[in-house]
Amino acid sequence: MPRMYIDSHCHIDFPDLAGQGDALFERMAAAGVTHALCVAVNFENLTRVLTMAERTNVFASVGVHPEHTEGEEATVERLLERAAHPKVVAIGETGLDYYWHKDRPEWQRERFRNHIRAARACDKPLIIHTRDAAEDTIRLMREEGADECGGVMHCFTETQEVADAALELGFYISFSGIVTFKNAVALKEVAKRVPLERLLIETDSPYLAPVPYRGKTNEPSYVPHVAAEIARLREVPVEVVAAASSDNFFRLFRAAH
Predict the structure, then answer these.
(1) What is the pLDDT of residues 169-196, one digit of tens each?
(2) Which of 70, 75, 141, 236 is the most buried (most CB within 10 A)?
(3) pLDDT in tens, 86-103
(4) What CA–CA distance (Å, rounded) separates 138 from 127?
(5) Closest Cα partner for 150 from 90, 218, 204, 98?
C-alpha cells in the first residue's frame, strides 16, 4: 500500500510559504503529499488563496476566521458568491474563538451562523475552528442544522465529549502537529478513539509544526509526521492512516477532483 498523504488544512498563501514558489510543492511531492487544501481566513486575501488553487493538486475554501475583526463582513450572499469558484470545496475557516476575543461574542456567533447557512445553501462542508468555545460551537451547529452539510473540526484540541458531539453531527475530526507534542496527553487519547473513517490530518501551516520540527515554520510536507504519530498511537501501520485520511478527504470535500 503506497504512502500518500493529503494536508487537509494549510495556509500556503501566507507570505512566508507562498514566497517559496515551486520548492514548497517539490518538497510536498518528495514527502508523498499529493494534495492540499488552502484555507481562507478573510475576503481581503482570498485572491491569494485562489491563486494557490490554480495548481491541480490544491483546493481552496472561502470564509472569514473568527479572529478576523476588520474588513468585509461575511454575509451569506457574499459567501455564496465566492463559493461558486470551481476550486472552492468548503466554507470556512469559521467558528468561535473566545480565547482571543472575549468581547462581542454575539457578533462572532452571528458570523458563524452565516457560514453554516451558506454551507447548507451551496452544499459544501464547513471547516470549523473552536477555542474556549466548544459548548457554544456545538450548540450553534445543532441549531443551524450543520449536519445537513457536514464538515470538519479542524486542528482538534478538545475533549472526547466534544469529539463525540461533532461525530454525532456527521463531522470529521482533523489532527494537526499538536498530536505529536509530548504534553498533548489527552489529545493523544482522542486520536486513538476517533473512528478511522472520520479522521483527517493537517498541518495548519505555517503554524504548529510537528515534532521533530516543532518551533519551525510548518509546511504541507510535514503532514506525514502527524500520520505517523496517529499510527503509533493506534498501533497500526502508517499506510493505514495515510490511506484512510486520504479517502476521507475526498469523501468529505465532495467538490474536490
Answers:
(1) 999 999 999 999 999 999 999 999 999 9
(2) 141
(3) 999 999 999 999 986 666
(4) 13
(5) 90
